Each structure stands twice: as structure tokens, then as C-alpha cells.
């Protein structure tokens, strides 16, 4: 009697899931997705899982992937979701009950884009098939792997209607079809409006120079910077931290970090001259890639505005540190410098067409004990530039109540959050990876994707208009110590997985996006859709709809599951 052999097709397992499903090597959390809806000009993403159980000695099968159907092929990007080694999945102060796992393992995050227009050919000698031109080969084994499918990534106008997409895996050993998964997508006539959230994840030019080993602001450095900016702008980041002077952030007291200064300074006698050529080059790239808003680097040191940032200038033909820790924030010398600098800066901002879209930082995260220092620093700037718009991370309502900041950025876990929410002032939300309490949003690699995406609903309910995070591409440890490649050491910052970055550096100088970056963008899309619905039925009705649909009263400390987020989004779309 002959034993029946298991064919590759019988052993190959695949499925379509939402973007908030969690597909780990050992398991999948989330329901299969059969149909979806999206607003016109929006971007929609889903995941396709695959696994080969193997039969006997065969444990791996090389495959290639294609999408068939009537959705325009030029409006589809496909990424392979890579995995990174997480040695410490449970960082400090995290609610362990909602982690994906508490075991060190491989976790999905980086997205490697699959090449388009590849050709499948058979080798005449080995009889094996090859996908010529594909830079990201796919090999299915016993662990779950996944692809990230992105529809309409460039936010183009689509023909409204229902589309069918068939996700097909074929074997590269014999070109046989292994699986075919089908999803229907409804594209609405209503087009999504411009992203309603102003979002910045802080951009570090020095980190790029260090991890790639290139000279600061060299042509090669700018080439890499351009890729990182483009990836940011395409994925919900419409504001960027602009290092006119070295940002006084994450720097040991009394020490200097690598100089990152776009504005050239020359001191002749008691007067200053400024060269904005690098500044204009940086801003020009940002505008070309889609950045709309700009943050000027902080004018005073972190945690209280007590000292000056590190500024270098040409003095008597030599580059010299003219300001830094040794100089008090309120010194006459620094005030005179600020007067000269801002007078020179404003015409440049006018020429670039961004003057009304530039926001200025005073000091990052000042506590209540630094209130008077902060007030004095702001008064200095207001005297020099009465129209200045200031924005800073601060969680005490006293700064807002006393009107010494234009836009406070409030930590999501702040005890004053309800005061900000009820005040009617323009405020933003931020979080770090340091404290993650039950129900709050965060984007660590080891948290479910729903914890990341729910930031959009949280912001809407609280009444926040923007989001800030301290790390888009920060590849250092605490206080800028060391340099690491996050592909091999994603827990470099206090063993906190992915807290300080949303993109990875590739070998060719291109930014590799993470699924967390794109899920966060989806959260901002939820916020925008809620704002659109608000225009139709009013804010109070939208708030009531959120609570009714989710079956609970929602605030920034309310846990929202992936299924709940999808149900709410479908309800909102049906009403638009």
C-alpha cells in the first residue's frame, strides 16, 4: 500500500488580514479579512500571511507573489514584513497583559518593498523557476510570514466602485499555484481630505551621518536625508524638526553632541553674519517631498531653558563654540545673538514661503520648577519677534493657564490631560516609551498594532490637533550615547523595543519603513475621517457615535482593540 504524498499546495497556508492584525512567526492574532472599504484618494493597507508546513525532508519552498484583479496595478505596493530580534520584549513600566509576548524572540516590523515588473523564467539546466528582477526573495517555511499590501500609496483619485483583488502565491520549483486569497475593496466617491493631524517625529541628521559614516551635510549625506524625509512625508509626517542649530536634546549636562548646524555663523567684531545656504537646501528638499510645517530647533536647553544651545561660528578664521552650557539663557550676549539671527532669518522664511508654517521651540519638557525660566525665555523671544509661534512638550496645565506657550504638547499619561481637553486651547499629544499604562497608546514593536493605531481616536476624543514624538530615526542610547543599527539591535535605547525610531537604515542609503510607521498613519486617517464626519453631524454627535459603537466611554486611557477600530472606521465611512 502506497502512502499519499502531501503536495505543496496542500501544505501551503495563507490568509488575508487587516493591518492591525499581529502576525508573529509562531501565531496570528486577528480575524481574516474578506472585504474592505476606503475613501477616495486615501491609502488602504492589509496583510497577507503565508506558511509552508513541509512534507518529510522538504521544509522550505521558494515562492513568488502577485496580485490579480481589476484594481489598478500601478496603485499597489507590496512589502515583505521582516523580523527583528527583540531581546527584551517587556520594557520598564509597561502593562504586561497587553504585550504580544513576554518572551525574547523575532518580531515583525521592517517593510522591504517588492520589486515591480519582474519576469518569471525557468532555468534551462536546473528546471527551477526564477523571478528575475526581484530584490526581495520570498521563501516559505514553517514560521508564519507576511506581506504588507498598500493600495493607492500616492493618494491618487480612483474610479469609485467595487474592486476584487486576488492574492496569489506560486512555487518557484515548478510554477504551480499554491494559494489564492480573494478580497473585495469598495472605493467611495467621497475623497478623504488633507490629513487633519499635524504630526512630527523628530528627525536626526546626526544619526544618519553616524550610522552611515558620511560627512555631515555632504552631498551623500543629503542624498540619504532626502530618502528619509520622503518616507516620513509619505507616511503621515507633515512637519519636521529643522536643525538650524544643534538641537539641545538628549545631551549630557556640560557635554556636546555632534554638531548639526544648518545655519552658518560668522562673528566679525561684535556683529554676526549668517549663511542660510544649507538651511535653504534642507527646507527645499522637505517642500519637494511634501513636508508642510517646520519646527525650528530649540533656542534653549532641555528640561528648563537654563542655558544656551551649542552654536559654532567662524571667529578670526577658526570655527569656535560661541554658546553652550557655559552661557546662561538670559545673558546679554545670547540675547544680542538672537536679535541678529531672527532679524536675518525672517526674510529667508518669507523667501521660502514658509514663514507662517514655522513653529519655534524654547525648551523641551520643562517641569513646573522651570516655569519662571521658561517664561523669561519666551518673553525674550516675544520682544524680538512678536509674531512668534511657540510649541513645546510640557504636561503641566499651568503653562497653558498662564498663556506662556502657544501650543503645549501634553504627555498622554498626564494627570492634567482632562484640563487641557476641556480648556479649548490648541494642544497636541505626545508619548514616550518610558511609561506605558493600561489603555494608553504606544508604538513599541512588542505591543499589538491596535495600541499604535488607536492614537487617532484618542486624539479626536481629547480634542488634540497634533502629535509629536521624540524619535523618527534616533539610533543612539540614552543621552546620545553610542551608535547602533536598529536592524540588529532594535532594543538599543534602554532595551526598549523600537521606542526611538520608525524607520530602519538600509545598505543602499534608503529609509526602510516599519509597519508601525504605516499603522500610525492609518490612525491619523481615522482622525481625519472623524473630523470629516464632524463637519456633517457635529462634534457631540461624533463623540456619542464613538462611545456607542465601541460600547464604552472613550478617553486617552481607553484600550481599543483592532476589531473595534475597524468596526468604528466602517461605521464612519458608511456615514460619509
Topology at a glance:
Blueprint lengths: L7 H4 E7 L3 E2 L4 E2 L5 E6 L3 E9 L8 E9 L6 E11 L18 E9 L5 E4 L6 E4 L5 E3 L4 E7 L9 E11 L5 E15 L6 E4 L3 H8 L6 H16 L4 E4 L21 E5 L2 E5 L1 H13 L3 E4 L14 E5 L2 E6 L8 H21 L5 E3 L10 H14 L6 E3 L3 H5 L5 E5 L5 H7 L4 E3 L18 H5 L1 H8 L3 E4 L33 E3 L5 E3 L1 H23 L1 H12 L11 H14 L1
Parallel strand pairs: 4-14, 15-26, 16-19, 17-20, 19-22, 23-24, 24-25, 25-26
Antiparallel strand pairs: 1-5, 2-3, 5-12, 6-11, 6-13, 7-8, 7-12, 9-10, 13-14, 17-18, 20-21, 27-28
Helix pairs in contact: 3-4, 10-11, 11-12, 11-13
Residue runs with pLDDT of under 50 for 5 or more positions: 1-6
How many discrete structural domains? Answer: 2
Could you give the count of β-strands?
28
Mean of residue pLDDT? 95
Q: Structural class, please?
A: alpha/beta
Please describe the structure with a list of short key phrases separated by commas or semicolons.
single chain, 576 residues, alpha/beta, Immunoglobulin-like, TIM Barrel, 5-stranded antiparallel sheet, 5-stranded mixed sheet, 13 helices, globular
